[in-house]
Amino acid sequence: MTNDNYSRDKGSGAAIPSAPPVCLLSNISLADRFGSVMCRVSNGFRMKYTVTPGLYTLGNPDRNSPVLVTGNYRLSLNALRVSINDRNAWILIVDTKGINVWCAAGKGTFCTKEIVKQLSACDLKSKIAHRTLILPQLGASGASASKVQKESGFSVRFGPVRASDIPAYLDNNCTASPAMRRVRFSFVDRAKLVPMETIPAFKKAGLFLLIAAVLFGMTRNGIMYGLALSGVLPLVIAGLVALFTGTILSPLLLPFIPGRAFSLKGFVTGLTGAIAIIFLLPICRSTPFLTAFNLVSVPAFSSYLAFLFTGSTTYTSPSGVKAELKIAWPLYLVSAAVSGVLLVLVFVRFRGIL
Amino acid sequence: MKHLYLSGVSTLKLAVEKCTGCERCVEVCPHGVFEIHNHRAKIIALDNCMECGACAQNCAVGALSVRNGVGCAVAMINGLMTKGDPDKGTCDCGGDSGSCC
To answer: Which own/partner contact pairs does A258-263 have at CB distance under 8 Å and 24+ positions apart?
Structure first.
């Protein structure tokens, strides 16, 4: 049996009704490690990192073994099967379109209906003697325990937030300690999310800089590369600093940066970065326009990028994000307009010198 | 270090007279917003609330209400830009953008 046996019917992508449960292995292979890294750097890879929904087994579950429910994102399943490597359990995987349980619950794909559907498709009742399901706690925003019970006859207990606490939870008569119920957002958690913030922003900024380089280098005799480079270099530095403070520094140092609003945190780190390059690099203050451009655009861009990180955190509320947006959005528009004007002045001055 | 987001914004409401003290809200809340006092739920840390909606979804007697959603700037900016309303946007989870809930 290979470690890949749980992608049994890759072709159809659909669950086989009442098919015999597939056995999961509890070890992590090299391919799994590769997958978990790829999920953090490529959205395209992550969206296809799925498992076929259906009933699975870990160890040798019998009619009294616990039933754990999860979504069909393979990274989640990997965490689950490794955490309970010495146990016997049934794993019911519902179709969450390859999205992790918490996001799927928020979007309504991890829901009562889907769980009930999968329960009957797998004919779980015929395989076990008890009538209890253990749902991931973070699935609670999508699934209702009372509705699941009403519609399927299974009573629901919510497991801990983290898969790694499941053994302790099971040993403690399916009771989670308050600490197990709390979601965290550690430095390591945040660090794992950084590449997916930086890479897309980097691509967009790159395109902008390419256009700027062409404009700076343009002469009647074609594009002068030396001219393009010397003109665009300060902009490259400004862009890199904003990317660094907005998508790397702000997420990593999140709780230590002054302010509660993400837009404010990003502004603080961005302004620090802008002042740093102005002081350290003469090329970044060669004209007053360039200095002003750095002071306006870097903090604003950094603030915007840090604000986007709200969607990746474990604790930001929609009301909070909306409140931030209300204040930040007009400021972003003003900053963009001012930056645009300053950029034109930087450009005119740059070309005027020659 | 504890993360703190904006205070005084959560839309979470508890109709304590309906509460039966089943403790489901304490069980599902990922931010320790509730405690049980005298066999009834009590909101002890409203500012910790991220409006995920888990408590309201699982309150069998409908004692809890919240305008739930995902606190995602990407979704709200998309909504604002395309439909003029931050509530109507979706984030690009599943698309090709970076930020994801």
So the answer is: A260/B4, A260/B5, A260/B6, A260/B7, A261/A324, A261/A327, A261/A328, A261/B6, A262/A306, A262/A307, A262/A309, A262/A310, A262/A316, A262/A324, A262/B73, A263/A303, A263/A304, A263/A306, A263/A307, A263/A324, A263/A327, A263/A328
Distance in angstroms (rounded) separating the CA atoms of residues A41 and A146:
38
pLDDT score at B101: 40
Find residues 205-264 of chain A whose CB sits inside 8 Å of chain B: 254-256, 260-262
pLDDT in tens, B29-83: 999 999 999 999 999 999 999 999 999 999 999 999 999 988 889 889 988 988 8
The partner residue sitting opposite A144, judged by closest CB among B6, B58, B87, is: B58
Split at pLDDT 50, 70, 90, the class of B90 is confident
User: At a CB cut-off of 8 Å and minimum separation 6, what does B72 contact?
Assistant: A310, A311, A316, A318, A321, B91, B99, B100, B101
E-strand ranges in chain A read 22-24, 54-58, 67-70, 89-93, 132-135, 155-158, 218-219, 222-223
| Chain A contact probe: residue of B29, B48, B57 with most A CBs at under 10 A | B57
What gap in Å lies between CA A124 and CA A91, rounded to an integer? 11
The backbone torsions φ and ψ at residue A78, rounded to the nearest 5 degrees and listed phi first, read -60, -45
CATH class held by domain A5-181 = alpha beta
Nearest residue on chain A to B3, judged by CA atoms? A255
Question: Can you tell me the ipTM of this complex?
Answer: 0.91
Q: Is the pLDDT of residue A100 over 50?
A: yes
Shortest distance between the Cα of B39 and any Cα of chain A, in A, equals 18
CA distance B14 to B65: 7
Every domain of chain B and the residues it spans? 13-65
What is the pLDDT confidence band of residue A120, given thresholds at 50, 70 and 90?
Answer: very high
Does the domain spanning B13-65 belong to CATH 3.30.70.20?
yes
Lowest mean pLDDT among A208-217, A251-260, A340-349, B29-38: A208-217
**Taking the CB of residue B4, how many other CB atoms lie within 10 A of it?**
11
Q: How far is A296 from chain B (nearest CA, A)?
A: 21
Q: Is the pLDDT of residue A127 over 90?
A: yes
CA distance A185 to A313: 7
User: What residue spans define the domains of chain A?
Assistant: 5-181, 187-353
Q: Do B5 and A320 touch (CB under 8 A)?
A: yes
Phi, psi of A134 (to 5 degrees): -105, 115
Question: What is the rounded end-to-end Cα distance, in angstroms, of chain B?
Answer: 22
